[in-house]
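Chain and backbone:
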Amino acid sequence: MSTPMQQVPPQTRPGTDPATVVVTVPQRSRWRRSLSQPKTLVGRVVLAAILVVVSLAFLYPFAWLLAASLKPRGEVFDNKLIPKTFMPENYLEVWNQLPLLSWMWNSIAIALLAATAVAISSSVVAFGFAYFKFPGRGLLFGLVLATMMLPGAVTMIPIYLIWKQTGLLGTWVPLWGMNLFGSAFYIFLQRQFFLGLPRELFEAARLDGASYWGMFWRIAMPLSIPSFVIVFLFEFQASWNNLQAALIYLNAGSVDEFTAPLGIAYAMTKYSPTAGGHGDYQYVMVASLIVTLPMLLMFAFGQRYFIEGVATQGRKG
């Protein structure tokens, strides 16, 4: 017959309350602490060197593009980061050579429409999956996520035939119209943020007579601004760089209606010696650099929301 196990009171220092139990939190392992915060001079130098090398590897293509945009025709592809002959007038001549302003305006307008449409529609669908509890919700949400497994080549022809039947080929609508129905990845992202919001907020608003749309617009949306901005930035960048859709749906006969990526591809063909051009690729480099600047500015101004959205996972204290 076993005897009952006796509880041994925790050892305490003299003069302290025996009921007080001190819980020690295990520290991080020594190797992780030394890796993230090296204390020796050699460790800090090695870490700084690694960061510099990785940063230069990422910055090299941009530096090469900047150097190529300042070179004359015969030196564009000499792979030198410091041009022998500086040609700053390339940045003035490119506006006469190419309708770059029209291309950028078209890309900005289409990207704004696409990003706004997908951010709002995905947020509405995500709020429905996060708040409402109905039979088959998990199955339906799984089907939505399953659409991400389909390659774009599978749906390319059916989507093209749909837009052809509507008679909207050659317009901007096919470049952003599909975003009115949301995106599976953005729905998943927004749903995770909405699930982090206290449900008591919505129950209290419901008791006060708020409608479902009012709960979404007045409570969910203001609290999920960081995630909304993330979705907006992601889609703006995706639409801005979307060459394939512009190549399929825009009218190839009207150069002024091209987007920036399609216009740069057209310029590459225009200046190609095999197509009768003179090899003036320096204008293509200038156009590529100018087209890159809006993305850099957007991420610079939206960085705070991006970091906040990823760090907080949509939870508000």
In short: Residues 139 and 145 are 10 Å apart (CA to CA). Residues 34-91 form one domain.
